[in-house]
Design a protein that fits this description.
alpha/beta, 6-stranded parallel beta sheet, 14 strands, Rossmann fold, binds adenosine-2'-5'-diphosphate, Dihydrodipicolinate Reductase, domain 2, 2 domains, globular, 356 residues
Amino acid sequence: EGFVVAILGATGAVGTRLIQQLEQSTIPVKAVKLLASSRSAGKVLQFREQAVTVEEATPAAFDGVDLVLASAGGSVSKKFLPEAVKRGAVCVDNTSAFRMVPEIPLVVPEVNESALYQHQGIIANPNCSTIQMMVALEPIRQAVGLKQIIVSTYQAASGAGQSALNELYTEAQDFLDGKQMHADIFPTKGDQKHYPLAFNLLPQIDVLEDNLYSHEEWKMIHETKKIMLGDMDASDIKVTATCVRVPVPISHGESIWIDTGDPTATVDQLRQAIADAPGAVLQDDPAHQVYPQPVNATGTRDTYVGRIRPDLENPGAFNLWVVSDNLLKGAAWNTVQIAERLVADDLVHPVVPATK
Ligand code: A2P
């Protein structure tokens, strides 16, 4: 009884958390397959005190698999997930490969879990920065409204993967030892120049596009519209973003300005909306210096919201500060949470190809 679950990218920063989150989940697991590149094949990892040997990802590795949790990069998902669907699996993909395909659900369960009913075998997990912003802003949108978002992110190094996190530690050590820092990965592996992140700030996440935005900024704008309004180009909510990599290992921070459109909206209303919201925790007590911090969020599934305060010159507008573990709610937990809903709603079944 139960499901055969494959984790694609099982040895990575998110993959190791996918294993932990699946161990702790309500999903009945009959067997688990841990897939990665040929570099890791043969490595032995643990799942619920069982030794599991990592296998190389190939199309045939998905034979007999019911559920795939993928976090091995966009090109790897593009290559293997259609193969897994052909073999009868349902895939929850943590990469950007399929997020902007209109027919593919892009889901934050607290916001739009009903979109899961439209799935055709692949469900996309949003970008880490988008997810935590949705958990914080959807309850405010429901309670008082939401017309505009201006967000600046403070994104942790681990968002770029385990090797990037290792690069930050090495740079920090070299700096403290008085040595030259050396960068190969940040700001982004695929670009021409690399800069140290330790003791620095990099206002580039992913590639810089012709429209002058980074691809990460573009994702936050269009994923927000698709999740909240069902259309990546919807104009009912205006969104703009500045994404910055900071030398923090885990958990992203976000400074968010919003216009609710309701000049009578109050801080108390916003605090109450967050306090009542699933997945969100209100951490907002200025008198006692209580506010969200990455060191406290790391290792937990929640999204923490604080520093809620009115824009003193724009009635109905507010500033807030949001922190969440980018590897958990931003990635592994949201992915497993989607899988739990699929199981609970009986949506894990082979997709019958559409007949013409
Ligand atoms: P491997 O450890 O064999 O390189 P991170 O996001 O921390 O960088 O992790 C990326 C994950 O994706 C790792 O588990 C990595 O496996 C896996 N991966 C990278 N390239 C491939 C590939 N071509 N096929 C399957 N898995 C891959």
